[in-house]
Amino acid sequence: MHIYEDHGIVIQDQERILVDPHRKRVDADRIFVSHAHSDHVHIGAKNPSTYYMTPLTHGLVEKKIPKAAYAEKMHFNSHVHGKEHKISFVNSGHILGSAQIVVEGEKKVCVTTDMKLQDSIIMPGAEIVPCDVLVIESTFGKKEYKFPEREDVYAQVGKWLKHAQQQNFLPILQGYATGKAQELTKIVNEYSSAIPFVHKNIYEKNAIARAHGHHIGKFELIDHNLKDAEVLILPPNLCDYETLHAISVSAKKSVVTGIATGWPSPSNGHETHFQLSDHADYDQLMNYVGKAEPKQVFTDHGFARELAIAIQKEFKIPARPIEEAKQYVLAQYERVTP
Question: Per the database record, which ranges form the Metallo-beta-lactamase domain (predicted)?
């Protein structure tokens, strides 16, 4: 068995399995899409039926990527059989509909893709998959990244909303339309008395999540009704000075902004920072490795080398960034050196 990076994560014996392709033109027998963020969804025109994704991921991407309509929908804990492998989806806890990919054959391989272990207000955290080979994300793979308890951040958001409303400000929460915005919608419903007014892109994603059985609370579409709004949820790319000024004029209120992200607080000092990440922090990543008990680990993205070295030191097992794998046969696997 070979595991390596080639415009996505490749698992190959007689059959070539590809996870989260980075471009449309790829060579694979079966392609598995972990979740609906645009950097993970690239579907080419050639034989799109070889693609697999969860039903909710399918719903979230099919309008923007019409070719996704031909992809196969696969539920959590169901599986497909390849020439030598059984492949299944397991919840990754990243965003609604997101999945880890588990490949079982001579060895059991788990590709976590983007994930978090924390439960959120809208979904449980990732299921830890015991495996022989683990390909684990490493976006926040340095010890300095430690996230607060999610409930504490939710309470912080609720307090901020209440204070803004008491001051007759219009609070604007920023979060990506796919993923973070659904969590923010639920937070506003549970931690304030307001109904959030949301951008059309968020409204569409919220409606799809609701149609798939996820209870994220009430929300209204922003549509020439800003005077009635008590709180807005917008994508971060729309919160420039001109847009915020126009909202303030239309709503006849001063606006205050808050952003939900796992990255350190923005340096501009003009908005409140809520440390909510859809990824695992360092402790969660190490916890996953410890409980999955793999014999070999590949780290993927972000601080991949730093996490690989930490895993080797803590668990005494070989670990290496996937981008350095270079089609190693697992029997020839090597440790990474600092």
Answer: 5-157
The reply to whether the predicted model has a pTM over 0.85 is yes
The CA dihedral of 65, 71, 77, 83, to the nearest 10 degrees, is: -140
Burial of 147 (0-12, 13-18, 19+ CB in 10 A): buried
Report the distance separating Cα 71 and Cα 204, nearest Å. Answer: 21
Q: Which of 44, 136, 174, 100 is nearest to 320 (CA)?
A: 136
Contact status, residue 31 vs residue 52, Cβ threshold 8 Å? yes
- Contact yes or no for 172/247 (Cβ under 8 A): yes
d(CA 161, CA 256): 10
Residues 91 and 124: beta-carbon distance below 8 Å: yes
Backbone angles phi, psi at 188, to 5 degrees: -60, -40
Q: Which amino acid type is present at position 13?
A: D
* Domains, the chain: 2-144+279-332 (3.60.15.10), 150-274 (3.40.50.12650)
Give the pair of three-digit tokens for residue 111: 């590709």
Indicate left, alpha or beta for 227 from its phi (over 0: left) and psi (-120 to 50: alpha). alpha
**Tens-of-pLDDT digits for all 338 residues of the chain?**
899 988 889 999 888 899 998 776 677 889 999 988 766 566 666 655 588 999 999 999 987 777 777 788 999 989 999 888 899 999 999 999 999 999 999 899 999 999 999 999 999 999 999 999 999 999 999 999 999 999 999 999 999 999 999 999 999 999 999 999 999 999 999 999 999 999 999 999 999 999 999 999 999 999 999 999 999 999 999 999 999 999 999 999 999 999 999 988 665 556 899 999 999 999 999 999 999 999 999 999 999 999 999 999 999 999 999 987 655 545 455 555 55
